TrEMBL record:
It comes from Urochloa decumbens. It holds the Pfam family NUDIX. This is isopentenyl-diphosphate Delta-isomerase. Pathway: Isoprenoid biosynthesis; dimethylallyl diphosphate biosynthesis; dimethylallyl diphosphate from isopentenyl diphosphate: step 1/1; Porphyrin-containing compound metabolism; chlorophyll biosynthesis. One of its GO terms (cellular component) is cytosol.
Amino acid sequence: MMAAAAARPTLALLASASASLGAGRRAWARLAVSSSSSAGSALPRLRGRRSVASAAGGAVMGKAGPGAVDADAGMNAVQRRLMFEDECILVDEQDNVIGHESKYNCHLMEKIEAGHVLHRAFSVFLFNSKYELLLQQRSATKVTFPLVWTNTCCSHPLYRESELIEENCVGVRNAAQRKLFDELGIVADELPVDQFIPLGRMLYKAPSDGKWGEHELDYLLFMVRDVKLNPNPEEVADVRYMNRDELKELLRKADAGEDGVKLSPWFRLVVDNFLMGWWDHVEQGTLHEAADMETIHKL
C-alpha cells in the first residue's frame, strides 16, 4: 500500500506529521520476542455490551464467489482488494487456530450469525511521552464502521507464517507493526516488535450495518513511544492525540449524538472495561503488571 499525504485533522492536538516515509516499505525483520505477559493484577469488573455467539466451527470455508464480487463492484478498489485477498485466522473461543477465511467472508453478518467466522484481531493503543493516546477516525471508504473514532490501529493478523507465531504473541505483534505502517505511515524502526505489550484478550460481536459486522477475539496491545505520522487517507480520515479529559468529552459527544461523533464498538468496550485503569499503569511505567493473557474476556 503506498504512503499517502498527511491527513487533514479537523480537531486540535494533531501529532506532528512526517514529511515523507523515507525509503518506503522495507522487508520486515521478524525477531524473537522475550515474554512480556505476566499474571498481573485483577482487571476491573466487566460490563459486557453484547452476547457472544457459540464457538466458531469448521476449518477452511469456501472463497467468496463471483456473485459476491459482482455485488460489491462499487466497493473502493483498495478496500475491495483487502477484503478478497487478506486471509484472516479463524479461531475457536479458546483462541485455538481452526482454519482461515477471507476478510470479506469474516465480516458478513450472515456468516457471523451462523457462528463460523470468529477470527483473531488486535487493537493497538499507542501513547506519546506526554501519556496522550493516539486515536484515529476510520476513512469513509472503510467497508465496516466508516468514519467512526477508534483507538490507534485495529486490524487482523493474517494467515501467514510470520503472523501465526503463538509464542509471546509474536505473530500478533508482527501484524500490528505491519498495519501501523499501512495505516499511519509509522516505519517499523520506530515500533520495535518487542515493545508492544499485550495486556489482554477479549471476545466480542458487533454489527456494523445490515450486511457487515465483527466477531473477533481481540488482542489488546499497548506501547508508549513518540513517533512520526504520515496517515494513509485510504485507511484514515483523521488522527488526534487525546488526554483523559479530552477522551471523556469525545465519549460524551458520542453518547449525546453531538457533531456526528461515533465510536467503534471494540474501542468502547475497552474504554468501559479496562482503559482508565490501564492508563494509570501507562503513566506509572507498570504496564507489565496489568497484563493478563490467560483470560479471554467475553463481552
